[in-house]
Amino acid sequence: MRKTLSVSLLVSACLSMSAQTTYDPKTDELHLRDYAEMMGKYIGVCVPVGSMNIANDNDKYAQKIYTEFNAVVAENEMKMDALQPNQGQFNYGNGDKLVAFAKRHNMKVRGHTLCWHSQVPKWISEDGYQNNKNYTRANLLSILKRHITSVMRHYKGKVAEWDVVNETLDDNQWGVSLSNGKYNLRQSIWVKVIGEDFLDSAFTWAHRIDPDAKLYLNDYGADFYGGSKATAMYNLVKRMKDDGVPIDGVGLQCHLSSGDAVEGIAKNARFYKQKLGIDCIITELELKAGASTSANLSKQAEAYRKILEGFLTNPNAPTMMLWGIDDNHTWIEGDQNPLIFDKNLQPKPAYYSLLEAFHNGYVTDIHQPWAEYSASAAVDDAVYDISGRKVADSLEEFSADGNSGIFIHNHKKFIQR
Ligand code: 9MR
Fold this sequence. Notes:
Blueprint lengths: L6 H13 L12 H7 L3 E6 L12 H9 L2 E4 L5 H4 L9 H12 L3 E8 L21 H19 L5 E6 L22 H6 L2 H13 L4 E6 L8 H15 L6 E4 L2 E3 L5 H14 L2 E10 L5 H19 L6 E4 L26 H15 L19 E3 L4 E3 L2 H6 L4 E5 L2 E5 L1
The structure holds ligand 9MR.
């Protein structure tokens, strides 16, 4: 069982703040989840429940997971083919194992995923695209409804949030723009046989059974603000919101590489907050680094750091999940070393950079009055004095005002002379 965060650790975190000592993440006694909890955030990881011994709290992987993370998601075990392998036969064993693990260690469970074109059971479709069983629209609607309502009922109150629909956008989004509001859907069996309203129905059924569960639309390649798939995602979610579909947010998978322009993620999150007032979370992060050279690992660490810094400054980004515990548990092939622990479960530079980013975010954070966030002004760029009073709506406005002293911008203190 994980030890609860002791008062002395908290005190030491605060002391290091006031004493302004040089921070060394390698000697930090706190873990990622400790900082996340102090800041009201979730940092999580996917668990290959079927092949990891999480029933044993002394297992080294189990221990690492509950020590470092406060959220989990099943890597494969709560997908449609796993939960309903034969029509009407539900198999909740592995999902229940994850829920029990999370309960023992006070972690949030994400559900992944109620409806997808991949990992669809063979009794529905050979490959998630063909309607080789010749289902009618009515047949498929009732199959989907039964799956979603059964699973939501089983996990009601135990799984806090769901990726209701996964990867419904086509890879080709040529011609979409914010002004034309267009998006292209993947021609999965769901879209072809039911039509676009399978999405609306899926969210509505899920919400009816568990109105407290948060419901997300999850996808890859829609991570960076301004990208064509990101624009398509926004257009689709806006359409759903406008139609009153109960959607709480967008999941950005973030299967990325160290060299990607990862700043685009935080920008995307801000956009969803400002325009639609919904969450924008990171659901499946990993960063391909290439071979395990020190240059590659430092570059990777910096990219992880930037992503976490962006995540901490966005109040509508409560959750950031990694897609694997270590470089031995990744779906990425080849020598890519995409995760924050190495093949021997030892911390990599990326782990320390996350810890440091959390530490810096926590100890310099004079909690911004998030309630002031409005849908209009770019208030996330606001500047505060050290008692938390807003002095300017933006850095530009601030510098034009001739202020001097210590101020806070983006959770960081700075001195204006
Ligand atoms: O990590 C998962 C891998 O073990 C499975 O073989 C694969 C099957 O499609 O799914 C992987 O997880 C995917 C996730 O469910 C959805 N987004 C992409 C992930 C990586 O492929």
